[in-house]
Design brief:
This protein is α/β, with parallel strands linked by helices. Among the domains are: about 55-195, Rossmann fold, CATH 3.40.50; about 455-545, 2-Layer Sandwich (GMP Synthetase, Chain A, domain 3), CATH 3.30.300.30. About 30% of the residues lie in helices and about 25% in strands. The strands form 6 sheets. An 8-stranded mixed β-sheet has the order 7-6-5-3-4-8-9-19, with helices on both faces. The longest helix has 17 residues, at about 55-70. The radius of gyration is 23 Å and the shape is globular.
Length: about 550
């Protein structure tokens, strides 16, 4: 029996690994109903100075469901939510489920082509969107899709402070659409007949970033959602007394599960801020006494650089996870030195409904001495992760290969894409496309994406290793490394960096810095300093965009 099958290492880090956990609810609506019954008057959403209790959220989502059913919505149809982190996002998601529907999250940064692609691929019949996004984007594309009902709303609803990121927001008239506030008022008090939702019913489609082709809609089931909501709760120790800080975008799987689903399960209030602004976020943490959050490492880098950031302001935020992008050890150390809190690495994909691995709370992730990589954790409950070679055979600890994962959090497949599903999942095992290794103690390390490997004169270079070295320089704020065409070497290593406020350094000095710490073939031959590096809405650095930057 292999180390992977025995899972013996798990008992060193987490409780009750030997027996499968019970998934407590068949679907996310049952999960939320239990919370409403347990604490109907407790806050479940906080939005600036606004409060929504569990009972109020239940009534609002009932009204939303009744409203879209009245407009012709039928079970199995899709509702696209194209919005920032606002209460209406949660209302629409719950309401769509109550109407028997599937929600589809659309990145509010999408422009016309991208939104139309998601609307067409999902076959959505309802679109919920911000007034500004309707005016600037959606109004130009919905007519060519299956969308029958457009519901518009404003960031200004459900609060009266009009502060922070809302100071520049104005209400916009959207003729031909249904105003969400009016819809909720018109159908307030209406109930809808219960719909049959099994654990295998699709809860939402979350579209991948499309880095290797057109975006694909990952079909996340209610079993996936309830299982990983429990994973967050039990692994981290979240209860109704906690306060969840919503820094991850709600359209992303981390926001959907690590924020919304976790709040629906535990009853812990979810604090929303529309858009993440570092200064506002520091103030919000202190004012709301937020205790838990999960977000990309760029969020925590931004908090460190916020002018009002101090240990006292973040004193309550004792439960912190970060995933979605590599975490350089230097940033972990700097954050802990400034605020006194350790950031726990977490790893997962859209296809694994957020976490498949996490650093157990109370433990510190080891750092590999050779590569400088911080461990992403150990497999979470009921999850078997393996490192395999190109033939799918298990590799021993320490050897580099592809990470594959099996467990209750693995998606059902890609929406209307059986071939892509078959390529990604075989016999319940998901091929992640991430390259890494497992050490002899069972800790997993991610080196890079398969497609990001650089081949310089026949030598393999993993961008992350070079990036981690660049992060060690005191002037570097962000770093991204890519391979660029080279007539002699085939590819050569190029780095893009942004600098800490007030810092100066030349490309030549940075190249010399790396040469003292890396083999020559791994060192960047070209370094370009930028004011800011391109990132996704979740904070991942966009290497694919950097590859297209003209060489100077």
């Amino acid at each position: 029996m292999s180390l992977y099958d025995e899972k013996v290492w798990l008992s060193q880090y987490t409780p009750a690994q030997s027996e499968p956990r019970t998934i407590e609810f068949d679907n996310a609506l049952e999960m939320f109903a239990a919370t409403v019954k347990r604490n109907p008057d407790g806050d479940i959403i906080r939005y600036f100075d606004g409060r929504i209790t569990a009972q109020e959220l239940d009534a609002l989502s009932d009204a939303f469901a009744a409203g879209i059913i009245d407009a012709g919505f039928r079970p199995g149809e899709r509702v696209v939510i194209y919005a920032q982190n606002i209460p209406q996002f949660v209302i629409a998601q719950l309401g769509a489920w109550k109407a028997g529907g599937i929600t589809v999250s659309a990145n509010p940064m999408y422009r016309e082509r991208e939104l139309e692609e998601i609307l067409r691929d999902s076959g959505a019949t309802v679109l919920v969107t911000l007034q500004s996004l309707y005016k600037d984007v959606a109004a130009h594309v919905v007519g060519s899709t299956d969308v029958r009902t457009v519901i518009t709303t404003s960031e200004l609803e459900f609060q009266s402070a009009n502060s922070g990121t809302l100071t520049a927001v104005e209400r916009i008239e959207c003729p031909g659409t249904t105003d969400m506030t009016e819809l909720l008022a018109a159908f307030r008090g209406r109930t809808v007949p219960p719909v049959e939702i099994s654990p295998d019913t699709v809860a939402f489609l979350t579209y991948t970033s499309g880095t290797t082709g057109p975006p694909k809609g990952a079909m996340t089931t209610h079993r996936n959602v309830t299982f990983n909501a429990q994973t967050y709760r039990d692994w981290i120790g979240i209860g109704a007394d906690d306060v969840i800080l919503g820094v991850a975008p709600l359209f992303h799987v981390t926001g959907l599960v690590g924020h919304i689903a976790l709040s629906l399960l535990t009853g812990a209030p979810l604090v929303l801020m529309c858009r993440m602004d570092p200064v506002d976020t520091v103030d919000t943490i202190e004012r709301q006494r937020a205790t838990f959050t999960v977000g990309s490492i760029t969020v925590f880098t931004a908090l460190m650089n916020a002018q009002n950031a101090c240990k006292e302001a973040l004193a309550s935020l004792t439960k912190i996870c970060s995933g979605g992008a590599p975490i350089p050890p230097s940033i972990l150390a700097d954050f802990e030195e400034k605020f006194g809190h350790y950031i726990h690495n977490i790893y997962g994909l859209t296809e694994t409904t957020s976490p498949s691995h996490c650093v157990p709370f109370g433990k510190r992730a080891p750092v590999d001495e050779l590569t400088g990589a911080t461990a992403v954790g150990v497999p979470v409950y009921d999850t078997v992760a393996r490192i395999v070679d190109d033939n799918g055979d298990d590799l021993p600890p320490g050897e580099v290969g592809e990470l594959v994962t099996a467990g209750p959090q693995v998606m059902a497949g890609y929406w209307n894409k059986p071939e892509a599903t078959a390529n990604a999942i075989s016999a319940g095992v998901l091929h992640t496309g991430d390259v890494g290794y497992m050490d002899s103690a069972g800790w997993f390390y991610i080196i890079d994406r398969k497609k990001d490997q650089i081949n310089a004169s026949g030598f393999k270079v993993w961008p992350r290793e070079v990036e981690d070295v660049l992060y060690e320089h005191e002037a570097v704020r962000e770093a991204a490394v890519v391979g660029v065409s080279d007539s002699y070497r085939g590819e050569t290593v190029k780095a893009f960096v942004s600098l800490q406020p007030g810092s100066t350094v030349t490309p030549e000095e940075l190249i010399a810095f790396t040469k003292k710490r890396l083999a020559t073939y791994k060192c960047p031959r070209i370094i370009e300093i930028m004011s800011d590096l391109p990132k996704t809405a979740t904070g991942k650095l966009l290497r694919r965009e950097l590859r297209t930057v003209p060489q100077s």
